């Protein structure tokens, strides 16, 4: 059996030489009949697929196959495949937007590819050159660019997925894999900016734990949260805030990174988010919020709606429910919000904990001024109205 090790950008270096992923070998088989594109206002997250998908397969003897763009269709996977039996699945979530120039662009795709490399490695799946993955994503977007909605706040969601396809019940890493890239036009998620969501803080179940997979984007992080979310929804809450440890540290809000804004005595604002300690997903939007907050404080930019002189003091450190309750009682808890690719920014207006509710200040339009500032600036960059640190990358320049 061939073996391999990973070098830069996830590339393969074989002990027995095997083929790495190669975008130059791409073949394209177009659909004979194209599907009608539904009105953008009817789109819901992840429920509509574009006409085509991209597939490449890994065999341990020969390496990665020539990638193929072909009509969207079911995968041919055995029931004994590792992804089905042991959850060996890693994926990414990114979005393509149309700018004012009519050209598609991606938001910070280098961060998605770096995270995909780490997630694939954590699942012990065969690696690949992420530069080639980006080149293939570009080609797929260009083939299906008619699926990118024209309306603001709508986009084409890109889901690169790697699944283990080795067969059998052996409890071991999969030496076969499939890369599948799918596209889905989408609009605002179930957490619209115009309405704060409610969240139940839970400690009986956890999303992630030290030494686990919480810092990676893998399928097995998500499905264990479905039942706790259903329980929270039956109690009248829309989302979950995951607590960890005896001191009940706040970690994430559902599948979103979590931020808390707290008033300081000096007139500034402390902007806190849990640290990347292995239990927190290193989100692209999370990093973007921290970078923009620091840039505002350094006066490298001014966030919309905020005073130029406002100091946003960012902290990546643990904080607990005891802290949250104290800040609320002292009148210093200004905003709590979740961030992520799908939602961008979701304001949290109510937090349930041990039968009581923490009620956050209400704001016209749903988002508080801090969350609104980040959402507006990030969306302006994503949709090409503003340029910032080369975050918005034209697909034809990748």
Task: Give an account of the 3D structure.
With 398 residues, this protein is of the alpha+beta class. 20% of the residues lie in helices and 29% in strands. The chain has 7 helices and 21 strands. It has helices at residues 82-86, 109-122, 130-143, 226-234, 284-297, 321-329, 369-382, and strands spanning 4-6, 12-14, 27-28, 52-59, 63-64, 68-71, 89-91, 94-98, 104-107, 155-164, 177-186, 197-202, 239-244, 249-253, 256-263, 269-273, 312-316, 333-340, 344-353, 356-359, 392-394. Strands 3, 4, 5, 6, 7, 8, 9, 10, 11 and 21 form a 10-stranded mixed beta sheet that branches. It is globular and about 65 Å long. The mean pLDDT is 94.
């Amino acid at each position: 059996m061939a073996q391999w090790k990973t070098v830069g950008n996830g590339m393969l270096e074989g002990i027995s030489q095997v083929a790495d992923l190669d975008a130059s070998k791409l073949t394209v088989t177009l659909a004979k009949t194209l599907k009608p594109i539904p009105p953008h206002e009817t789109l819901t997250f992840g429920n509509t697929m574009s006409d085509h998908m991209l597939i490449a397969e890994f065999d341990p003897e020969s390496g990665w196959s020539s990638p193929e763009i072909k009509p969207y269709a079911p995968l041919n996977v055995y029931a004994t495949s590792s992804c089905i039996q042991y959850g060996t699945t890693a994926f990414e979530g990114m979005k393509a937007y149309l700018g004012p120039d009519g050209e598609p662009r991606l938001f910070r795709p280098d961060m998605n590819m770096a995270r995909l490399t780490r997630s694939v490695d954590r699942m012990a799946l065969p690696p690949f050159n992420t530069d080639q993955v980006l080149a293939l994503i570009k080609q797929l977007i260009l083939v299906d660019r008619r699926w990118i909605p024209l309306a603001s706040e709508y986009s084409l969601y890109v889901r690169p997925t790697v699944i283990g396809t080795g067969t059998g019940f052996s409890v071991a890493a999969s030496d076969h894999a499939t890369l599948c890239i799918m596209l889905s036009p989408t609009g605002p998620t179930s957490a619209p900016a115009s309405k704060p969501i409610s969240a139940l803080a839970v400690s009986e179940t956890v999303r992630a734990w030290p030494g686990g997979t919480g810092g990676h984007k893998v399928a097995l992080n998500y499905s264990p949260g479905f039942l706790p979310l259903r329980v929270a929804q039956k109690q009248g809450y829309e989302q979950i805030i995951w607590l960890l440890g005896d001191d009940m540290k706040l970690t994430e809000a559902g599948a979103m990174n979590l931020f808390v804004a707290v008033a300081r005595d000096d007139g500034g604002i402390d902007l806190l988010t849990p640290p990347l300690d292995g239990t927190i997903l290193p989100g692209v939007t999370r990093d973007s919020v921290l970078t923009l907050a620091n840039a505002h404080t350094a006066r490298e930019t001014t966030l919309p709606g905020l005073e130029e002189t406002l100091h946003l003091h960012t902290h990546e450190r643990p904080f607990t429910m005891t802290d949250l309750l104290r800040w609320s009682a002292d009148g210093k808890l200004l905003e709590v919000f979740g961030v992520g690719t799908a939602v961008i920014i979701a304001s949290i207006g109510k937090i349930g904990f041990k039968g009581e509710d923490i009620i956050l200040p209400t704001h016209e339009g749903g988002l508080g001024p801090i969350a609104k500032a980040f959402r507006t600036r990030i969306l302006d960059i994503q949709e090409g109205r503003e340029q910032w640190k080369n975050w918005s990358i034209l697909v034809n320049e990748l």
